[in-house]
Amino acid sequence: MSGNVFEWCTDWHGVYPDGNVENPTGPETGWARIKRGGSWYNYDINCRSAARALDNPGFWFDNLGFRVVRRVSEE
Questions:
Q1: 22-75: per-residue pLDDT in tens?
Q2: Mind spelling out the 3-state secondary structure of the chain?
Q3: Do the beta carbons of residue 17 and residue 27 sit within 8 Å?
Q4: CB 37 within 8 A of CB 49
Q5: Which of 14, 41, 42, 43 suits a disulfide with 26, CB 3.0-4.6 Å?
Q6: Which of 71, 72, 53, 73 is nearest to 63 (CA)?
Q7: What phi, psi does 46 have (nearest 5°)?
């Protein structure tokens, strides 16, 4: 679903730590939240899950939202 809309993340914006990390979470507080994935409004280079941008949590635009995830039971 990358590229449909930017996805709001719960992470606050911060500088990544040095070295290789997996799923960094960022600082505990801040003024800007992370959004990922690009949208229909962006160039194709930004329409990937590694694309990262930031905005104030009060910001809204029609290319920003959340993605619905459905977990299928393994029973």
A1: 877 788 898 999 888 888 888 888 788 778 888 888 888 888 877 677 788 876
A2: CCCCCEEEEEEECCCCCCCCCCCCCCCCCCCCEEEECCCCCCCHHHCCCCCEEEECCCCCCCCEECCCCCCCCCC
A3: no
A4: yes
A5: 14
A6: 53
A7: -90, -5
| Residue 69, token pair as written in the block | 């995830």
Q: Using CA of residue 10, residue 12, residue 13, residue 19, what is the dihedral sign?
A: negative
Task: Report in angstroms the alpha-carbon separations of 16 from 8, 23, 33, 64.
Answer: 18, 10, 14, 23
Q: Is the pLDDT of residue 15 over 70?
A: yes
Q: Which of 33, 29, 30 is nearest to 60 (CA)?
A: 33
Which residues contact residue 31 at a Cβ distance below 8 angstroms, ignoring those fewer than 6 apart?
13, 56
Beta-strand pair 6-12/64-65:
parallel
